[in-house]
């Protein structure tokens, strides 16, 4: 790999590394974790590289809370596809980096569509990352040399990629755009959603009607809180199918609960069964319904032709400016702006400069879209209607 790897498995060694890193201008960071059998992600390894050093930190052997000092420092953290890493760091040490640069986000401003870390290594450095240990058991100890080398390779040259991406962004005057988007990613909510929203993650529950919706919301919230309290996946408490079946049947006794598919009979007659029945009763009493969006469905139908045309133009703009189309705007983003939502992503920041303001001109009738040799273009409106027939 070309550089030595230090394995950190004592509190004293971690403290020394943190002190050193706080004085660095930047560092590359990655994590390895599992969450298949736990509610919260289980941090298994932290990889950090900086100019002249690379460490692998063993969170199973030491307390990770001293890492909070590094997170709060002015050192720039360089990560790739950082969303899950931020959740893991927040859980492990109570902090996330104060300053952050996400190489995947930045690559979107160069026309790349959510590239993998491996593809960025190949594109920028001509380096092929090994994939052999991608699905390894990172919680096993001791870790083998192949595992350590694989983990280290994720950060060993990430700062080089950072340099190359920055130079390309500077050439296109897009550094400010990338930094603003990285800050949005950094500051958005990381971790589980509120328990009252857990029912939305159950596909079948979203199709329920009447009081069944309220029961599903209450039962799914109970399941979420129970899963968090015992640190197990929600599906291990009771499966999605059982939540939906309970919501439809609204059982009022342990016997009725025990007859529902997916509910263990012993659970139904025990303490947990009592808690489920209380959640059912609460849902029935609240008789909650999702707030209705004001004519949102009718508006969506009315706006569909305009949204389709505008979305085509937005894709054209993304292509012309070498931007990842999904980074510039999704179809939902276009619909939100055309509808006039005050919190539409296209209404603020760099997105507004590129596409939002021109779309507003289109919606207000001051501009028009046309096809020019297969390309969608936005033009000043002539206000001369084309005679048909």
What are its keywords?
Nucleotidyltransferase, domain 5; 389 residues; 6-stranded mixed sheet; 50% helix; 8 strands; two-stranded antiparallel ribbon; DNA polymerase, domain 1; flat
Characterization of the model:
This protein is α/β, with parallel strands linked by helices and 389 residues long. The chain folds into 3 domains: 6-187, Ribonuclease H-like superfamily/Ribonuclease H (Nucleotidyltransferase, domain 5); 195-286, HRDC domain (DNA polymerase, domain 1); 296-380, DNA polymerase, domain 1 (Orthogonal Bundle), CATH 1.10.150. The protein is built from 18 helices and 8 strands. The chain has helices at 11-22, 67-71, 83-93, 103-108, 117-125, 145-156, 158-171, 175-187, 211-230, 234-237, 240-249, 254-258, 265-268, 271-286, 296-320, 325-328, 331-339, 349-364, and strands at residues 6-8, 26-34, 42-50, 53-57, 76-79, 100-102, 367-372, 375-380. Strand 5, helix 3 and strand 6 form a beta-alpha-beta unit. Helix 9 runs antiparallel to helix 14 and helix 15 crosses helix 17 (331-339). The radius of gyration is 26 Å and the shape is flat.
Short description:
With 389 residues, the protein is α/β, with parallel strands linked by helices. It contains 18 helices and eight strands.
In CATH, the homologous superfamily of the largest domain goes by the name Ribonuclease H-like superfamily/Ribonuclease H
> By helix and strand content, what is the structural category?
alpha/beta
Strand fraction equals 5-15%
Which CATH first-tier class of the largest domain would you pick? Alpha Beta
Task: List unreliable stretches of 5+ residues.
Answer: none
Instruction: Tell me the CATH architecture of the largest domain.
Output: 2-Layer Sandwich
Instruction: State the total count of DSSP E strands.
Output: 8
Question: What's the domain count?
Answer: 3
Biggest beta sheet summary: 6 strands, mixed
**Average residue-wise pLDDT:** 92
Distance N to C terminus: 72 Å
Shape summary: flat
Strand order of the largest sheet: 1-4-3-2-5-6
CATH topology of the largest domain: Nucleotidyltransferase, domain 5
* Residues in helices, as a percent range: 40-55%
Oligomer: single chain
> Element order, helices and strands?
EHEEEHEHEHHHHHHHHHHHHHHHEE
Radius of gyration: 26 Å
Query: With helices defined by DSSP (H or I, 4 residues minimum), what is the helix count?
Result: 18
